[in-house]
Amino acid sequence: MENPHAERQNVLLQRIIKNADKCTEAILELNRCLEEIIQADAHVKTAADLVTKYRKNVQYNIEATRATDPPS
After folding, report:
1. Dihedral of alpha carbons 31, 37, 42, 45, sign
2. Which helix (H) or strand (E) holds 42?
3. How confident is the model over 49-72, as pLDDT tens digits?
4. CA–CA separation, 13 vs 19, rounded Å?
5. How far apart are the two ends of the chain, measured CA to CA in Å?
6. What is the b/e burial string over 50-62, where b = at least 16 CB atoms within 10 angstroms of the residue's CB?
7. DSSP conformational letter for 72
8. CA-CA distances (angstroms) from residue 8 to 3, 4, 12, 36?
9. Reduced to 3 states, what is the DSSP secondary structure of residue 2?
10. What's the whole-model pTM score?
């Protein structure tokens, strides 16, 4: 006759393993999604950097134009 405690422990361990596997799958999927987001953010960061540089250039040119304009 088998030990009923061993059977119960075996069932519980199997449940734990199954849940751990599901958790691992979910974490892997989350990592894939985060990688996609990071790649998409790289394009947004590039665009933001370009806009920032453009704004600084415009500001510089406005100030340079004011400095060369004769007073009214």
Report:
1. negative
2. helix 4-68
3. 999 999 999 999 999 998 887 666
4. 10
5. 107
6. eeeeeeeeeeeee
7. -
8. 9, 6, 6, 42
9. coil
10. 0.59
